[in-house]
Amino acid sequence: MVRTYFLLAWTWTRAAAAYPVSFWLMTVLSLAVAATDLAVILVVFANTTSLAGFSREEVLFLYGAASLPFTLCDLFVSNLDRVSRHIKDGTLDTFLIRPAGAWLQLATDRFTPTRAGRVVQAAVVLVWAVAALDLDPGRLWMLPVMTATGLVIFTSLWTLAGAAQFALTDAPEVVNAFTYGGHQLTQYPLAIYGRDLVRGVTYVLPLAFVNWQPGLYVLGRADPFGTPEFMRFLGPVAAPALALLAALAWRQGVRHYRSTGS
């Protein structure tokens, strides 16, 4: 499955690289667009010394910890949000009759390698923030766990978004609110949001386990909302649970799909 994915992705990469000037311009533009989110944070801290009790370096750590897995998923699986377009165009049937799985093909359909610039930017911010903070070395083991957990959670969200489009073919932007909107929400300390919203992204849609709960452990900070200490370590439990739900939703969407006949 992995080999098939990268073969399909490489095909699209070669097609994009056939126009090198356009390829590199789009890569730089992608990096510039991603930098606007970072610029907003820097503007905020140009006018204050803390945000909900978190320093600039701590906020940039949370930003990088959320953005790295998100941009990786944006690069590798975000094209799942094109399901409704394929249904409307009558092209989804071609994915279903091929020997490779529909999920795999849709994830790599029109693979956009120029989004890699966003991944680099997120990784640089995270590495800089870790270096700038006086972190306990004994807690840094959580960093790869955070990234892996975030990858599973965001991949699951995109899978759920794709599955929802089997029913919501006219409202792709609604499901994007949970993917791109989820990333926007996790870029900042959840302490800036209301208690009810934070409960929702902790106990219902587990976005808090992308960077907030494990990030508090790495930073050695207490949760302003008073959640128990063991919650910092539940990301590897919440992420597979969401992945299972996403897999079931995707299976149901495909099974109940009715061909356009075109």
Automatic annotation (TrEMBL):
Q: Which residues cross the membrane?
A: 28-47, 59-77, 116-133, 140-161, 230-250
> Its domain of life?
Bacteria
Membrane among keywords: yes
- Keyword Membrane carried by entry: yes
Q: Which UniProt keywords apply?
A: Membrane, Transmembrane, Transmembrane helix
Instruction: Kindly give the InterPro entries that the UniProt entry links to this protein.
Output: ABC-2_transporter-like
Q: What is this protein called?
A: ABC-2 type transport system permease protein
Organism per entry: Nonomuraea wenchangensis
